[in-house]
From TrEMBL:
Segments of skewed composition (Polar residues): 1-16
Lineage: Eukaryota, Viridiplantae, Streptophyta, Embryophyta, Tracheophyta
Regions of compositional bias (Basic and acidic residues) in chain numbering: 17-29
Biological processes, Gene Ontology terms: transsulfuration
Gene3D superfamilies, sorted: Aspartate Aminotransferase, domain 1, Type I PLP-dependent aspartate aminotransferase-like (Major domain)
Protein's recorded name: Methionine gamma-lyase
Organism (species): Nicotiana attenuata (Coyote tobacco)
Gene label: MGL_1
Family membership noted in the UniProt record: Belongs to the trans-sulfuration enzymes family.
GO molecular-function terms, A-Z: carbon-sulfur lyase activity; pyridoxal phosphate binding
GO cellular component, one term: cytoplasm
Cofactor: pyridoxal 5'-phosphate
UniProt-listed InterPro entries: Cys/Met-Metab_PyrdxlP-dep_enz (IPR000277), PyrdxlP-dep_Trfase (IPR015424), PyrdxlP-dep_Trfase_major (IPR015421), PyrdxlP-dep_Trfase_small (IPR015422)
Keyword Manganese set for record: no
Superkingdom: Eukaryota
Length: 443
């Protein structure tokens, strides 16, 4: 039994010798090369279950946490070979945890499986993942085409920070207008088409296959933020080159850690960890191994959580619509992107756990949220999403506050728009009763 666990444990008790040329393809590979099952649709939960389980150093059912910042070598000449790039984590050689860490690397394998990509690497935040990808793919003078409807922090990065610091400019487009997207791409100059699978906060659903076709016809790399739709959508299987996440949201589920991920080709992830030119390596948005361990323990039940988030969001959106409220939810038949979402969505996971309720004015939105939190205990006024409690915020004055009024108007963000991340705490009817009571007090 101990021998079997030793064979299956990713964290070996013994450092390998540089002279050991025996190939262990499953040990510390950044990601497995695509096999047949990567080329066809695979349920994300099944993909996660197919990743080799990492046992602990002493046979524990959970993997060990490699909390070391630095790693020893058995022979002095190994260190120089590691820095020269001859020996690396694919053969169980580690230098320093800002570069590669076994526990963080394992979480990366799980993220790659979840998104159906060759590789993935996890970072200290979602914004660090986004910023690092953009800086790796673009050089000074390059151009980006991006959706008008983006998370405020991403919009600020593309609008203000990258032009000032790196001479990287962005043209913002209506992501539903394919002619506009096509015309905005400047062949030879545009390097990235960037959009969110389901946009924050307006819940615009991107037609990922068509947008990828347009971009790839002109040699442009497609980067998709899938934070709002893990399990629900698989952008890489729909044609996207790179998928980024704020793991702080649904994947964590606990509203207690900040983390991000870059999922994509092994060549990109390896280039981002290059000692001389890698954006992740040199900017240093390192994930703590203890955080990586915690997150790896939460991924197995992500599918169950997403199904309940999405189930409740659809029921609440349907019932609120029937009450005559202005609801935005892509799972509703009246949503303009309902058909395209259904054509792309992974079966049985629903259509997202976020809904928007437009109260017309910020004053009415704030009044409703006040009653929902402080009178009926329906949820909390807080940013972020994916928590087991319902979280509510008025997007225009919070998570999209980096945008000016004209940018908000172009993105479709009205002053009274409440973004609601529907939780699963309590019974469904209990929470609906609290919501209905609050709505009745608004009249």
């Amino acid at each position: 039994m101990a021998d079997k666990l030793q064979q299956n444990a990713i964290v070996s008790n013994q450092k390998r010798s540089a002279s050991d040329e025996h190939d262990h393809p499953d040990d510390f590979t950044l990601a497995k090369k695509p096999t047949k099952h990567h080329l066809i649709w695979e349920d994300p939960a099944a993909a996660l279950a197919n990743v080799r389980h990492e046992f602990g150093e002493h046979g524990g059912v959970n993997m060990s946490i490699e909390a070391s910042a630095a790693f020893t070598v058995m022979e002095p000449e190994i260190l120089s070979r590691m820095f020269a790039g001859e020996l690396g984590p694919d053969r169980d050689f580690f230098i320093y945890s800002r570069h590669f860490n076994p526990t963080v690397l394992n979480l990366g394998r799980l993220m790659a499986a979840l998104e159906g990509t060759e590789a993935a690497y996890c970072t200290s935040s979602g914004m660090s993942a986004i910023a690092s990808v953009m800086l790796q793919l673009c050089s000074s003078g390059d151009h980006v085409v991006a959706s008008r409807s983006l998370y405020g922090g991403t919009h600020a990065l593309l609008t203000h920070f990258l032009p000032r610091t790196s001479n990287i400019t962005t043209s913002f487009v209506d992501i539903r207008d394919f002619d506009m997207v096509n015309e905005a791409i400047v062949e030879g100059k545009t390097k990235v088409l960037y959009f969110e699978s389901i946009s924050n906060p307006t819940l615009t659903v991107s037609n990922i296959p068509e947008l990828c076709r347009i971009a790839h016809d002109k040699g442009v790399t497609v980067v998709v933020d899938n934070t709002f739709a893990p399990m629900v959508l698989s952008p890489a299987r729909l044609g996207a080159d790179v998928v980024v996440h704020s793991i702080s949201k649904y994947i964590s589920g606990g509203a207690d850690v900040i983390a991000g991920a870059v999922c994509g080709p092994a060549s990109l992830v390896n280039s981002m960890m290059d000692l001389r030119q890698g954006a992740l390596m040199l900017l240093g948005p390192t994930m703590n191994a203890k955080v990586a361990f915690e997150l790896s323990e939460r991924l197995p039940h992500l599918g169950l959580r997403m199904k309940e988030h999405c189930n409740r969001a659809l029921i609440f959106a349907t019932r609120m619509t029937n009450l005559g409220l202005k609801v935005i939810y892509p799972g509703l038949e009246n949503h303009p992107d309902n058909a395209i979402l259904k054509s792309m969505a992974n079966k049985d996971y629903g259509y997202g756990g976020i809904l928007c309720l437009d109260m017309g004015t910020e004053e009415r939105a704030n009044s409703l949220m006040n009653v929902l939190q402080n009178c009926t205990q329906f949820g909390f006024m807080a940013v972020s999403l994916g928590y087991y409690e319902t979280l509510m915020s008025c997007s225009g004055s919070s998570t999209s506050s980096e945008m000016n009024n004209q940018e908000k108007e172009l993105a479709g963000i009205s002053p009274g728009l409440i973004r609601m991340s529907v939780g699963y705490n309590g019974t469904l009817e209990q929470k609906w009763s609290q919501l209905e009571k609050a709505l009745s007090e608004m009249h």
